[in-house]
Structures are given as C-alpha cells and as structure tokens.
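Friendly challenge for the regulars: who can give me the structure tokens for this chain first? No prize, just bragging rights.
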Amino acid sequence: MNKENFLQQVFNYIDENISECIAIDKISEYMHYSIYHFSRTFTELTGMSPMRYITLRKLQYAIFNLSNSEKVVDVALKYGFDTPEGFSKAFKNFYGYSPAKYPFYDKLNHLQKIDMTVFNNFFGGSIMTSQPVQKGALKSLLTVAEKGVRKKSKEKLPTHAMGFPAMMSAIKTFMGLDPRMQIHFHEPYNKTFLWDLDYYFQMAVSTEGFGLFYDLPQTAIANNYWNGEALKDCFTGEGIKYRLFAEEKCISKDEMLIPENINNLIHKHLKKNLPLIIIYNANLYLFVTGICENNMQLLAFPFSDGNNNGAFEMQKNSRLYQNWNDNIGAIIFIDGICEPAPRKEIITKALRRGYEMLTETKPTYYEYGFGDNLYKSWISFIDNDENYKTKKDSQRYISPEWCDMAERRAFTAEFFLEAEEYIGQGKLKSAYDSFYQITDNMKKIHGLVLGKNMGKLLERETRNIIISILNQCKDLDHTAAENIKFVLDECCTV
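First reply, four minutes later:
Bragging rights claimed.
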C-alpha cells in the first residue's frame, strides 16, 4: 500500500468515527498493522503521532460546531473529552486561546474532508481556521527567516499578558537584535526571575503601563493620541524601521490602507524576507512571518491582552490563519533595522506621556479612562449594589481587573529603574515604590474576594474595603505622577 492510500484510509476512518473514543489498537487492526508499525509509519509520514492527529481533528470538528453556536459542554462530550475543562485545555494547547476567547470563528456550512490533494499542498491547510504548524509543513510556504531565537533559562519568565509590548519584545529578538534578559532576584516576591527588560521598556514607551484595560495601537491608530508618537517611539527606540498603513482617519499613517490591495502588499513584502504586523479592531495582533502561496493562508503568531505572550521561538510556535482579512485596522510593515533613537530621548518622552495619562482629567472613550477617571469609574462599578446580586457576580469588576493593573504597574516600575540609568540613580524611587504598592494592593483585593473567599464580593462590607484600597491606589498614582513631573522639570529636556 502506498503512503497516499495508507493516509487516506486512516483519515477516512478517523472522520467516520470522530465522535467515538478512537484507540490506536483499533485503527491498527483496521489497517492490518501492528500498533508499533502503524504508529511509526503514521508519524514518519505526517510529522505527528496518531493520537496528536486525532485530538487535532476532533478540535477541528469542535471549531465547526462552536462556530455554529453549539455550547462548549455539549461539544466536549460529543467528541469524547472527559470534561469541558479537559476539552478547553486541549483547545488552548493547540490554538493558543480558550474556546470562549478564540477570535477566528466563522459560520461554516460544512467541514471539509481531508483528501490527499489538500494534504500534499499543505498538511491540513484548508481545513483549519488556525492550526499549529507541523513538521515538514513549511515546504509550501513563503517564510521569513528567523534571525534570533531566545535561549531557554531555568529561571521563570514572568507572564507577558500585554499583547503589544510582548510582541514588540519578540520582534526585536526575531530581527536578530540582542534581547536584554537579566537574572534578577526580585525582593517584593522573594524569588529569582528571568527579567525581560525589553518588555518592561515597551510597557512604558507604549504608555500601556500607565492605564487599565488599554492597548496602544487602538489609541494611536484609531484615536490619534499623541499624534502617533508613542507608536513611533516603540519602533525607533529599538532600532526597527517600519511603515504604517492605516485608514484615512489615522493622522500618523505613512500610507493609506486600501483593502483590495492588502493581499498583494503582504505577498510582496514577505518576498523581501521581512515580517509584518496585522492589527485588528479587537485587541489582536498577528506577527506574520509567512504565507501559503496557493491559498493565501498566513503563518503568524498571535498576541493579545490576557494571554501568555511569552513564546519567542516564532517559527516554532507560529500557526496558520485562513480567515485573517476581516476587521483589519492597520498593517505595520517591518523594513529592517536601523540606529536606535537616543535612549534618554525615548525615555523622557515615555515619562512625559505617562505623566499626562496619570493626571488626565478629560473623559476618554475607554470604559475606565485614565488618571482619576480610571479610579472613579472602577469605584462606581463596585459601589453599585445592582452589579452584585447573584453568584455569577462574585468576580465582577475584580477579575481580571486586579491582575491587569498589577502587571501594568509592576513592570512599568521596572522601567523606572532603567530610566534612572539616564537621569540619575534614585530619582524615580518614589514612583517605583508607589507602583509596586499598587501591585501589592491588587493582591490584597485578590485575597479578599477570590480563592477561598469566593463570593465575599457580594457583601457590602467587603466592597467598602475594596473601595478604600482603590482610593489608596489613586493617591499612589498621584505620588508617582508628582515624582515623574519633578524629574521631567529637573533632569529632562526633549
């Protein structure tokens, strides 16, 4: 039996029994192979084990069902997962998202069967909306060479929950620029970590570290904050040349984004052996490193707020995206590397924007806003008894808010340490201490209402304590802002 017939029979058997518990011994018996010989042959031909393929195929069927509004619990049971939790874990391992947060669902009328034409062009290429890239699959892709790969470390890398700063840190490494990693004993946690200084730098330069539930690209591109200077500094501060294609309302664009030209622009750019970034209108960024020339699938790595964006071996961790060209807000074409802008200049501008955010008094389009409005909004939500009537409200306006605020302030505090190298040691100590105190306060809030205290948020007394803590955080942001202003007035000119 030739390999095409072998694989086609296996694929057909799995599809015909997709709702069953498919055991390797059953498939081996069906194919008249020993278990050992069957597993070895399948793995050699596909680059993955039979059980991995079965799980992958079940998840493909699951995406079809979920895209047509079926419930997670029903889909999990339908395809033989023991629990919805087990299904969600497998789903996230393959796609990088939980089923609830997966951004590429489509209304599908059918799920395409695998035939050998599809397999030979690209394994699984046209049957998945987003899929991991398997061994040997890159042969049909036009791909950008990865110039730098981060070395693994036994020390733990803290979470990278902010999508845009994490992506910028990864792009720097991908382009072959030396990553600034440091083994660091962190006193507030009494642990040794692998410190990603590039990520912390981007947290502040992008201004994301001074807000809550806030991402720079939407601000810079859709709302023209700072006339696009923050976005520009994120690239020039690292020595990365770029061009921004965006809609007409974006005043900082280099060129107009014309939808009918997108496919051609992307294809031509990737042929230059340079990557690009697609920015969507829903807090999602794709760092694109390849394209399937036959059907325009993109090879890319996703970044979005709330996920662990710490995967830096980009080609290894990339996924394929088929329905990628809806709701695009902008495209950033990476044109190579250049001399970085003066570090002190970038840091000074970042501090100035941070001060402006912390002292902002005008309402913004964000739900929480900036400055005092951030805390005013947050406190008003928690103070409203109508928001806390049932058990489903037991984490409302606390999770993930507490974690989001804790990470933003803690990692921006680490940026203050780098800033002191250029403006003087100890100059930003008050801001550093204030931001870490806010992080500690967020952990206090977590302890009050989550874990063993789940449900306490429904009690008025507990919410009053949280409101008091948030008022303390507002004062701490004021203290940090005063310190930053003093430094800007005394030490910094741009």
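The two ends are 73 Å apart (CA to CA). The first helix runs from residue 3 to 16. Your move, everyone else.
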